[in-house]
Design a protein that fits this description.
The complex is a heterodimer of chains A (319) and B (360). Chain A has 319 residues and is of the alpha/beta class. Chain A contains eleven helices and 14 strands. Chain A has helices at residues 47-54, 76-79, 98-108, 113-126, 142-153, 172-187, 199-204, 222-228, 241-249, 275-284, 298-314, and strands spanning 9-18, 21-31, 36-40, 62-67, 70-72, 83-86, 160-163, 191-196, 207-212, 215-220, 233-238, 254-260, 263-268, 289-293. Chain B folds into two domains: 3-42 and 162-354, no CATH class; 49-144, 3-Layer(aba) Sandwich (D-Maltodextrin-Binding Protein, domain 2), CATH 3.40.190. Chain B contains 15 helices and four strands. In chain B, helix 3 (60-71) links the parallel strand 1 and strand 2. Chain B is elongated and about 90 Å long. The chains are: A alpha/beta (319), B alpha/beta (360). Chain A binds chain B through residues 52, 55-59, 73, 76-77, 80-81, 85, 87, 89-96, 100, 103-105, 107-110, 136, 152, and chain B through 2, 4-5, 7-9, 11-12, 15-16, 19-20, 194-199, 201-205, 357-360.
């Protein structure tokens, strides 16, 4: 085992074909150890498929994968002792209690009896299940189920944790708690690959990759990605935002216009200051508005990455 | 094969089963219900067929013959008629299943050695037909002294010809075939439907551990069902166990294993619990019809017999009837034992080969 050296995950030219659908298309990925690495992308962008290939549940159509120094899927069995995987859909047994589920997973992971008991006690305490040990997993709330699933995924103290949209069915407060737990794990040195479609969650990651229709369209630290967009964002505060949007949508050089409350967020196609020209265009249309430069955020990164893709691919984009 | 992981799967399955009230109830209800239904309803040895009698002779001799016929218990008189035509009318309407015609010249015919009595039978039911033929073989009082049967039949093992004796041992096989195949097939497919399979295959559990661990609890259930049928068979129908009880259980285990592995194979194919159920019945129906449970094996065409030889139930029936009714032992029927073992090994291999620890 050559743990400790090299990235936790390294994938080259990873592709997956389902019939005529190319779910993942030539993705290169490097996940450094100890990072919380976010997978951002709309539904159906290939996040789950990529994660499943990385933990050896799906055979790639093309490409090479090394996870923790092991070739996947060839050495997937050896890998399974060292990783944790939390499925998108709750996959623990709903007709077993909290404790029974953990007991099962501990035994299956090969923890010796005494060690298993201690580890389960510890997890039950850490994940706040002390008064729910005998509750059936199926009767718990979405947030509780996710917490249990996470506890189950880390029972073997994995070096690498895969989380597939862990918070998609969870209320905001549980979401925050859940992320606290993830950072606790990261502090202990666990590498975490987590997919999400929430921007605020992506923002918390050390590094993110944005997938769009199976293609990796952006990859980097959230701060670096937003900095790259500096100067392309304009905020328009208008009395009639809907009408202003209609004027600006097809304006040359504009990539997207999104309404946020009473203001509009305009993203330029290239790095140019559009505020003066946009202001002029709005005045010409007889609309009162104040136009100024804005700080880019991850949402803009996401829009820039995914919209840019559409332009290149299909060559048509109305809004 | 890692014992800790195997036990973990086994324990999980038991715990889930304990919470599944309906499955739990089915384990006992299915055998009890089937035993009672088959034991009481299927009676191939018919008695009290509704009969019409046209005694045209109307003398002492003919009355004696009628009394003798009724004394066999095969028929019960429900109608009297004057002519054969009236009897045929009753037969067509379904009022009677059997008609007995005694012609006016009955005694003369008897003395001349000609056919003296006519029995009309509703042949639309073959079982009724064979019962009536039995009636026709009845020796007639006056002639019986002079005529001896050229062939005598000595019936071993079930001289009273009670069908429960024939059916109850076979029923063990039928019930095990139905429940064992279905339970295992559904148990694995359900895991896939509920999304548990993705979790399971992402753990270090091996294919063999998963399959064996999952079916072991069902093997236990199969033995419980076997015991229920044996006990009820003894109490309700006085079905004997002439061979060793131990060997009855060995035979049951052989069938259980064959069916569990078949269930596993089905589970690798079926996408939903409903499909698993359909596939189970696809196997179950030929098992009931061709194995010799309902219809005698010897009467089937050659091709069908070959097909039947591929069904575990066929071999089990030979074993269990041999042990329970004829007092035979397993070594005398080693071919059937071997057939079941080969079937099990084949199914298990296929199932493990077909089951992939991948999602694609």
């Amino acid at each position: 085992m050559n743990s400790g050296q090299g990235p936790a995950i390294q994938a080259r030219g990873l592709s997956k074909q389902f019939g005529t659908l190319r779910a993942v298309d030539n993705v290169d990925l490097t996940v450094p150890r100890g990072h919380v690495y976010g997978f951002l992308g709309p539904n159906g962008s290939g996040k789950s498929t990529t994660i499943r290939m990385l933990c050896g549940l799906l055979t790639p159509s093309a490409g090479e994968i090394q996870v923790l120094g092991l070739n996947v899927p060839e050495e997937a069995e050896a890998l399974r002792l060292r990783i944790g995987y939390m499925t998108q859909k709750f996959s623990l047994f709903e007709d077993l209690t909290v404790r029974e589920n953990l007991e099962f997973l501990a035994a299956v992971q090969g923890l010796p009896r005494q060690q298993a008991r201690e580890r389960i006690d510890q997890l039950i305490d850490q994940y706040h299940f002390a008064d729910r040990q005998k509750q059936l997993a199926g009767t718990m709330s979405g947030g509780q189920k996710q917490r249990l699933a996470l506890a189950g995924a880390v029972i073997n103290e994995p070096e690498l944790l895969f989380l597939d949209e862990p918070t998609s069915a969870v209320d905001p407060e549980s979401r925050r708690d859940f992320w606290e737990k993830l950072f606790d794990l990261a502090d202990l040195g666990t590498t975490i690959l987590v997919s999400t479609h929430y921007m605020d969650e992506a923002e918390r990651c050390h590094r993110i990759a944005i997938l769009d229709r199976g293609v990796l369209v952006a990859d980097g630290a959230p701060g670096a990605l937003t900095r790259d967009l500096a100067g392309r964002c304009v905020e328009v505060v208008a009395a009639q935002p809907r009408r202003a949007q209609q004027v600006l949508v097809n304006f040359p050089g504009v990539l997207s216009v999104a309404q946020i409350g009473n203001s509009l967020r305009v993203l330029a196609q290239a790095k140019e200051d559009l505020s003066a020209t946009l202001s002029g265009a709005l005045q010409q249309a007889g609309l009162e508005a104040s136009v100024h430069q804005a700080e880019p955020n991850l949402e803009d990164v996401f829009v820039a990455a995914t919209r840019g893709q559409t332009r290149d691919g299909a060559g048509s984009d109305a809004a | 094969m890692n014992w800790q992981r195997l036990y973990a799967i086994f324990l999980k399955e038991l715990r889930q089963m304990r919470r599944d009230r309906i499955t739990l109830a089915m384990i006992v209800v299915i055998p009890v219900m089937q035993l009672v239904l088959f034991g009481y309803a299927i009676n191939l040895n018919l008695r009290h067929l509704p009969a019409g009698i046209a005694d045209q002779a109307g003398n002492a001799a003919s009355r004696t013959v009628v009394m003798d016929m009724l004394a066999t218990g095969v028929i019960s008189p429900v109608a009297r008629a004057n002519t054969p035509e009236q009897l045929m009318d009753l037969l067509r309407r379904g009022d009677i299943s059997v008609g007995v015609v005694i012609p006016p010249d009955f005694e003369r015919r008897l003395n001349e050695g000609r056919e003296a009595i006519q029995v009309l039978v509703d042949g639309s039911d073959t079982v009724v037909q064979s019962a009536a033929i039995q009636l026709a073989r009845m020796p007639l009082t006056q002639a019986s002294a002079s005529r001896t049967e050229p062939i005598s039949v000595v019936s071993f093992y079930n001289p009273e010809r009670r069908s429960a004796v024939n059916i109850v041992p076979g029923l063990i096989g039928v019930i095990l075939t139905m429940t064992m195949v279905l339970f295992t097939a559904v148990a694995i497919v359900r895991e896939r439907e509920r999304g548990n399979m993705e979790l399971l295959i992402a753990t270090p559990v091996s294919r063999a551990e998963l399959m064996v661990g999952k079916v072991l609890p069902y093997a236990g259930i199969g033995l419980v069902q076997t015991s229920v049928i044996l006990l009820l068979g003894l109490w309700l129908f006085q079905v004997p166990i002439r061979g060793s009880v131990w060997e009855v259980y060995v035979a049951a285990v052989l069938l259980i294993l064959a069916n569990l592995t078949l269930g596993l194979l089905i589970s690798t194919r079926a996408q939903s619990q409903f499909q698993a159920m359909q596939m189970t019945f696809f196997v179950f129906l030929p098992s009931i019809l061709l194995s010799g449970f309902m219809f005698p094996f010897a009467g089937m065409p050659q091709v069908v017999q070959w097909l039947a030889e591929a069904l575990p139930l066929t071999h089990f029936l030979r074993l269990i009837r041999g042990i329970m009714l004829r007092g035979a032992d397993l070594t005398e029927m080693w071919r059937e034992v071997l057939a079941l073992l080969v079937f099990t090994a084949l199914m298990m291999t296929l199932a493990i080969l077909r089951f992939r620890k991948r999602l694609d």
